[in-house]
Each structure stands twice: as C-alpha cells, then as structure tokens.
Here is the input.
Amino acid sequence: MSRALNLEATEAEVSAVCLSMGVATTAMEGLIPSGTRVVCRNSEGAMVLRKKFKTKLIEGPITRSPRSVTPSSAMR
Here is the structure.
C-alpha cells in the first residue's frame, strides 16, 4: 500500500488531522489547482488518513506544485 495520498483538502486541514490522530508524515505539498499531497511515514498512518478522508481522496492524475516540498510539521 502506498504511503502517499492526494487529498481534496488544504495543507492546514491535513496537518491538523495528522497532528490530532498522531499520524507522522515525511512530506506535504499543495496541488494545482487545489488539494494536498501527503506522504505518511508508514502505511498504518496512510490507512488512518484514507479512512478519515475517504470522501476527499483524489483518484487519477494530479498536477504537483513546482515549488519545493515543505517538510510536515507533524513529522516525528
């Protein structure tokens, strides 16, 4: 199972959920035109986020931001 998820949510929303649910991440970046790509530290964290954001998962192709990846504040 992939540790990376593409979500139709803001970086702030994803960060808040990660922090409240104890999900450690290694990277988080905005998508174009909206959404967030998040990479969890382990597959268990990815499963937690998939369950929490089940209606906001982006399936299919995405456009990543050309800016550099921001380290997540939820890193542990």
About this structure: The chain has one domain: 4-64. Residues 4-64 form one domain.
